[in-house]
Each structure stands twice: as structure tokens, then as C-alpha cells.
């Protein structure tokens, strides 16, 4: 996998669905099974590597990370699971900068490539701190996925998007991960302005949990990341297929609007 | 080659701004506000007036005569325990609260370990009419109960944090998450020289009044500089505050980390490796996978796996040395100061005192200043309950 394949994943006439799974949650075995099951509904799969102190995560993902860590899930064990994967949509890792540094930046990029990983989201590595990591990733054809927030100025948006590869991750509203009821009107305007500036597809995450959210935002965004809602569903012993099906449908009907 | 100027917000390789994108705009605004405040005479005057009339500065430099005789040298105590609310934390809390006003913020979040920073922040907010929410590990709520009551009386909301070991690290996690969720209304009033740039610089500057006073007081009294300055190091703010007064002098700087009990400690400068926690590169207690390790100290204010980036830099540069004092040694010093000098120190500060004793045993006759960062009232109920006194 490579950046190109990641970019290809968006070259369809439907909205991209990006489920987020936590490596090792609820157990390493179920994670591997969920990864296969999610592949059927996903354009890209985001795999979280559990971290002891995730600053941008709400209670649901924090608890999933703690559970995964209790099963001794590590970056290394996660890369092993991904290396063993035969096939499926591109995978993007989500992890903390300290995990990348502890592993070694260049070594991480090489191992990620070997594990057929297309990119990585590092939420606590903002643009100004990211040059070295981005270069090492680019060397192995791994995308460092940039994040934008509602608090990001237009000037910063331009600078960040100027270096973007793969896709841009739009944090929907100021806050930590977790489900939300609905989005304020500003959210739509913010997504539109980012998309206008962006040379890569823009995907919205943080709070996407039901088809209505996708319907509300689908005209402005290229894809949707579903994290806490999926993790919570798994915690409630629902099947991944059951959780993702309605969201997939909302993404598929997106371009044709309300044709039902 | 000229020596490289460290990048903005860096102390050598340490520091930086490793925060989620949502917070970057706030940090930039804080940088700008702090810069303009530094050149604003009215703001500086307001800080000075507050330190004098509300905090009770200058604090005395006290020659502990009996302890000096016991230890075999000259032991001076910088009496931060005599400040309003009882610890050095108030110096930074009042300064940052004024800065928050300047930024137009109406709501303050803070973390606290020993509760001293929480109490100081609650007091500063009460005075300025700011809403105050303090995150505190549930374990710390138990072991520093008097401070929980004080915060509530001062009008703050105290939120106990149940994750992990229920100590300072999880309180900082929660405070940062709150800030991410309320970036417009809220200022994060961090309590030590940790966190992303510009916090380590701002907190050091507000605490540097300790070192400025101590240097002047020592010279006035002794006609020379001390041989060494000693301070305990949790995040490292009382230590940076007093070090700042002497870092350009030929004075030894000694920081003291918490040795806890055996393998279970909170001494990243002595046993850690560089990494990123809470927004900054620093020495950290972490495993091979980059996971942050759990810590233990009898002192809630020292019970933290990271340490300020400037201390990390001073260690590598060899300008300061860092030592370890364990729970037992600190408790012994706690009792000793109470009996011999009539001063009950915070268990945090007791770590610095215990190291002073060790240093004077090794090198008798030195003149040292110990930063007595706080008073021990907060520690009594829990120490008595556990039969440790
Ligand atoms: C009395 C006292 N001393 C020291 C500390 C440790 O913090 P720092 O290392 O930032 O001075 C605390 C923290 O709560 C404290 O209350």
C-alpha cells in the first residue's frame, strides 16, 4: 500500500467511509476479526494504536485503549497483525507522537510500509513540529495525515493543506472524540472552506455516529470517520456489519442526494 | 560555527508544542498576550502589587540555626510556606489569572496534585471573578483533603479523576481535554513548568521572583553568594523559580526528585528517557513502546512521570544536578524540621530538605538555600491517618 492507493480510495462516486478500530480492543483476536469484517464496508480503515495518555480522546476510546493495553497490545504487535492481513482497503494508523519517537521515526516509517500501512494520523503532532516525521514518512511513501480544527486560522489551513498527502482530517467541532447529537451550522461552513483550500479529499471525524450526520454534512465533505460510535457498538456486543451498514448506505446515497 | 540558537519554545532539544490542532490557536494567542504583557508597565505593576498585597511577598530568607548546627553547615530556608495559601504555587496562579483576564477569558481550568496549585488558582480566580474548575486525581483528593475543602470554600468546582493511578498525570490529561472542548472561553492555568510552549517559560518567569528575592536577601545578609541552592522537583516550578536567580552565578543547583519506594518512584531525570508528554519533549518515565509509566511518591505534588523541559536541558548541559530522595527520608526530614525549627514543611519540600542534610554530611560547612516550597498543614490528616507521624 502507498499514498497513491490511499488517494485512489477516494476516486469513487460515493462518499468514503472510514471506520476506526482500536488495535487489541476488546481483545487482539476480536480486533483481527473486526478488521476483516470492517473491510467489506470501508474505503479506508483507521487503526488506533492504544496509548496510555491520549489527550484528544473521550471516555469511549480511552476505555478501549486501556482495555487493549491490558492485553499487552503494542505498536509492534499492531504492525504484526497488519502485516498478516491479505487484502482489503488501505489502512491508516492513529497514534501518539511519543509512540512514533519511542519506536524510532525512520524505523516506524519502514515498518509501517512493510505492514502495508498507507498513512498515519498523529493528533499531538501539529504542523510546526511535523517536518522531520513528514519527511521520513514520505521517504517510505507513507502519508502524514494533517488535521484541521474549527480553531485553525485560514492562514494555517493554507500552510497545512499545502503539504497534505492522502487526505485531510477535519475535526468537526472543538472537543475530544465522542458521539454528538447534531452539528451546528458553523460546522458546514468550516468544512466547505477547508475543502475549497484543499488539494486532497477532506474527511470529517469526531462525533460522526449516525446516518443523519452524514446526510447533514455530505455535500461538503469527501469522507466520514466513525470512531466512538463503532467502538461503543463493539462494546455493546453488536456486530461490526450491523453498525456500519446504515452508515455505508448514507455514504453511498450521498452523491445522488435524496433518491431513496 | 556559532552556537545554534534554540528554536522558539525550545530548551535545547526539549520543549515544543506537541498538542492537538484544536489548541494551537490558543497557544499562539497566549504567546502574543504574554509578550505584550511583558512590555506593559501597567500589567507588571499589577502583578507586583498583587504579589505584595495579596500574596504577602517578599517572603523571608530564614537561617535555620538549629538545623545548621545539626547538619554541619549553614542552612537557609526560602520561606514560600509563608505565602498566602501556603506554597509557591500562588506566584504563578495570580500572574496567569491576570493574563487570562487580559486574554478575555471567563473560565479557568487547572490541574492539581498536592492541591496547592488548585487552592492558589481558586483564590486568584475568586479575587478576579473568574469561574474555576480544578481537576484532581481521586487519590490526591483523599490524601490532600484539607485542600479540597479549601478550594470548594473559595468557590471552585473540584473534579476528581478516576483514571490510572488517580494522581497528577490523569488530572493534567483531564484539564487538557476540558480545554480542547472549550478553547474559546477557557484558559488552562497550568501549575508547573511543564506543558507546551509558552507555559514552561511563563511559569518560570512568574516563579523567578523566588530566586530574585533569595539572591538579594542572601547577599545582603552574608555579603556573598551561597554555595548551593536546593529545591524539590515535581514538574519543577519551585526549582526553576529559585534556580532562575542563580543560574548565571557560580552557585551549584540541586534538584531533588521523588524516590518513592524502591522501583516505584517519580524520578524521570534520574531514571527516564526523552519523550513527549503533555505537549513537550522532556525526560519521561516510559516503556519501550512509548507508554507512560505509573509513578508513586508520598508527595502528591511530586508524583508525576515527566518534568519541565528546562530541567531536562539543565541536566544535559550539566548546569544542574538532580538527586533522588525516597518517601522515608523525606518523612524523616519533615519531622526534623518540625521539631528543630518549629516549621512544618510540605512533604514535597521535605525532599529538598533531606537532600540538604545529605549534601552537608558529604561536604560540611557549605552555605545552602533550601527552597521551602510549601507548608505541611495539607499533609497532616492523611499522614496521621496512615500512622506515619
Ligand atoms: C509545596 C509544593 N512543593 C512542590 C511542588 C512540586 O511542584 P513543582 O516541582 O512545580 O514546584 C508542589 C506541587 O504541588 C507543592 O505543592
Structure at a glance:
The complex is a heterodimer of chains A (260) and B (389). Chain A has 260 residues and is of the alpha/beta class.
What this model shows, in words?
The complex is a heterodimer of chains A (260) and B (389). Chain A has 260 residues and is an alpha/beta fold. Chain A is 44% helix and 14% strand. Chain A has one domain: Aldolase class I (TIM Barrel), CATH 3.20.20. Chain A contains twelve helices and nine strands. Chain A has a nine-stranded parallel β-sheet. Helix content of chain B is 45%, strand content 19%. Chain B has 16 helices and 15 strands. In chain B, the strands form four sheets. In chain B, strands 3, 4, 9, 10, 11, 14 and 15 form a seven-stranded mixed β-sheet that branches. In chain B, strands 7-6-5-8 form a four-stranded parallel β-sheet, sandwiched between helices. A two-stranded antiparallel sheet of chain B has the order 1-2. In chain B, helix 4 crosses helix 9. The radius of gyration of chain B is 19 Å and the shape is globular. The relative contact order of chain B is 0.16. Chains A and B meet through helix 3, helix 5 and strand 6 of A and helix 1, helix 8 and strand 12 of B. Bound molecules: pyridoxal-5'-phosphate. Pyridoxal-5'-phosphate binds next to helix 5, helix 11 and helix 15 of chain B.
Amino acid at each position: 500500500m502507498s499514498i497513491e492507493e490511499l488517494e485512489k480510495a477516494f476516486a469513487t462516486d460515493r462518499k468514503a467511509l472510514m471506520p476506526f478500530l482500536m488495535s487489541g480492543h476488546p481483545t487482539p483476536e476480536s480486533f483481527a476479526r473486526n478488521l476483516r469484517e470492517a473491510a467489506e464496508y470501508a474505503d479506508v480503515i483507521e487503526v488506533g494504536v492504544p496509548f496510555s495518555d491520549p489527550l484528544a480522546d473521550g471516555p469511549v476510546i480511552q476505555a478501549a485503549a486501556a482495555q487493549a493495553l491490558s492485553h499487552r497490545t503494542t505498536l509492534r504487535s499492531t504492525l504484526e497483525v497488519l502485516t498478516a492481513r491479505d487484502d482489503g482497503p488501505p489502512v491508516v494508523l492513529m497514534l501518539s507522537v511519543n509512540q512514533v519517537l519511542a519506536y524510532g521515526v525512520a524505523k516506524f516509517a519502514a515498518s509501517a510500509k512493510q505492514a502495508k500501512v498507507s498513512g498515519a494520523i498523529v493528533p499531538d503532532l501539529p504542523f510546526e513540529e511535523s517536518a522531520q516525521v513528514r519527511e521520513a514518512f514520505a521517504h517510505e511513501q507513507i502519508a502524514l495525515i494533517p488535521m484541521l480544527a474549527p480553531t485553525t486560522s485560514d492562514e494555517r489551513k493554507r500552510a497545512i493543506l499545502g503539504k497534505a498527502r492522502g487526505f485531510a482530517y477535519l475535526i468537526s467541532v472543538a472537543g475530544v472524540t465522542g458521539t454528538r447529537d447534531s452539528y451546528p451550522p458553523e460546522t458546514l461552513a468550516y468544512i466547505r472552506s477547508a475543502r475549497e483550500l484543499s488539494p486532497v479529499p477532506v474527511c470529517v471525524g469526531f462525533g460522526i455516529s449516525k446516518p443523519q450526520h452524514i446526510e447533514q454534512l455530505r455535500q461538503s465533505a469527501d469522507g466520514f470517520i466513525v470512531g466512538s460510535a463503532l467502538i461503543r457498538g463493539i462494546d455493546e456486543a453488536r456486530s461490526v456489519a450491523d453498525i456500519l451498514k446504515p452508515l455505508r448506505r448514507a455514504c453511498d446515497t450521498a452523491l445522488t442526494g435524496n433518491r431513496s | 560555527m556559532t552556537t545554534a540558537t534554540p528554536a522558539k519554545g525550545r530548551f535545547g532539544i526539549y520543549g515544543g508544542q506537541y498538542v492537538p490542532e484544536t489548541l494551537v490557536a490558543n497557544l499562539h494567542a497566549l504567546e502574543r498576550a504574554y509578550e505584550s504583557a511583558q512590555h506593559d508597565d501597567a500589567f507588571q505593576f499589577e502583578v507586583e502589587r498583587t504579589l505584595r498585597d495579596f500574596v504577602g511577598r517578599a517572603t523571608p530568607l530564614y537561617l535555620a540555626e538549629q538545623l545548621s548546627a545539626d547538619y554541619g553547615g549553614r542552612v537557609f530556608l526560602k520561606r514560600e510556606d509563608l505565602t498566602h495559601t501556603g506554597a509557591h504555587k500562588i506566584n504563578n496562579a495570580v500572574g496567569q489569572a491576570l493574563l487570562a483576564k487580559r486574554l478575555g477569558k471567563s473560565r479557568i481550568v487547572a490541574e492539581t496534585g498536592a492541591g496547592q496549585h488548585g487552592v492558589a488558582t481558586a483564590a486568584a480566580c475568586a479575587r478576579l471573578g473568574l469561574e474555576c474548575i480544578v481537576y484532581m486525581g481521586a487519590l490526591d483528593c483523599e490524601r490532600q483533603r484539607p485542600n479540597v475543602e479549601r478550594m470548594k470554600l473559595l468557590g471552585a468546582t473540584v473534579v476528581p479523576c478516576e483514571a490510572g493511578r488517580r494522581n497528577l498525570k490523569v488530572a493534567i490529561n483531564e484539564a487538557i481535554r476540558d480545554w480542547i472542548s472549550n478553547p474559546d472561553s477557557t484558559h488552562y492555568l497550568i501549575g508547573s513548568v511543564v506543558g507546551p510552549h509558552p507555559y514552561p517559560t511563563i511559569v518560570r518567569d512568574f516563579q523567578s521572583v523566588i530566586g530574585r528575592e533569595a539572591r538579594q536577601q542572601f547577599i545582603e545578609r552574608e555579603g556573598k553568594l551561597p554555595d548551593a541552592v536546593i529545591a524539590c522537583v515535581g514538574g519543577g516550578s519551585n526549582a526553576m523559580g529559585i534556580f532562575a536567580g542563580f543560574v548565571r552565578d557560580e552557585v551549584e543547583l540541586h534538584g531533588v526528585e521523588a524516590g518513592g519506594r524502591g522501583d516505584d518512584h517519580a524520578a524521570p531525570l534520574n531514571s527516564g528517557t526523552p519523550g513527549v508528554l503533555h505537549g513537550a519533549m522532556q525526560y519521561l518515565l516510559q516503556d519501550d513502546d512509548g507508554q507512560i509509566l505509573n509513578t508513586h511518591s508520598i508527595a502528591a505534588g511530586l508524583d508525576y512521570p515527566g518534568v519541565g523541559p528546562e530541567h531536562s536541558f539543565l541536566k544535559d548541559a550539566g548546569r544542574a544536578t538532580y538527586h533522588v530522595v525516597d518517601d522515608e527520608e523525606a518523612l524523616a526530614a519533615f519531622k526534623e524540621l518540625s521539631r528543630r525549627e518549629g516549621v512544618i514543611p510540605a512533604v514535597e519540600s521535605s525532599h529538598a530538605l533531606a537532600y540538604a542534610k545529605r549534601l552537608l554530611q558529604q561536604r560540611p560547612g557549605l552555605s545552602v538555600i533550601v527552597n521551602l516550597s510549601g507548608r505541611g498543614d495539607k499533609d497532616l490528616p492523611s499522614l496521621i491517618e496512615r500512622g506515619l507521624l
